[in-house]
# Entry
Amino acid sequence: MKATPDLWHKYTADYEIVTVKDKKGRERKEARYTGPWFCLMGSPGTVRTKLILAAVCGIILTGLLVAVQIFNHSSAWAVYVAVPQAVALFPLLYLLMGLMSLPYNLKPMERPGYMHGIIRVCRSLVAVMVLCGVSLTGDFIYRAVSKDWIYLPEDIWYLVLLAGILVLGGVILYLLYSIEIAERANHAVHKE
# Structure
């Protein structure tokens, strides 16, 4: 049984060291990717449109999550509402990094590119949505415990923004999961 690689050697099985000659005739060693390639299947226009829509929705989601932090609503000072909102900013950073790594040029991706792009966006998005859902649940618990059922305009905006985050998160997940991805062997990609 093959041992699971540690964090630092995660993708080493996908590379091999080869000796090549440079322009001056000296031999040097370099890493060559030999692992699988991940190709986006479907019409290039449709796939590119889905990726761009996912990125635009991700940028809007970022704005909504930052706006949620600003509103001073009734339950803003409750720990079980404020902490999940603040913690949601960390997966939001990974979400933004993943959006920048999406394959907008539609070229085949190596495993690290696939994992740092599409997979990172999906995982980070789920974390943001879960934390916003916890915050929303905390808001309802706050209102039930404190018997503060009066909704001020800030409270309504807060609920609208959280609902917008959850809806946009669902849209992004739908767009990314609707793209068919095929894993191909290294030699199959280079023949095309």
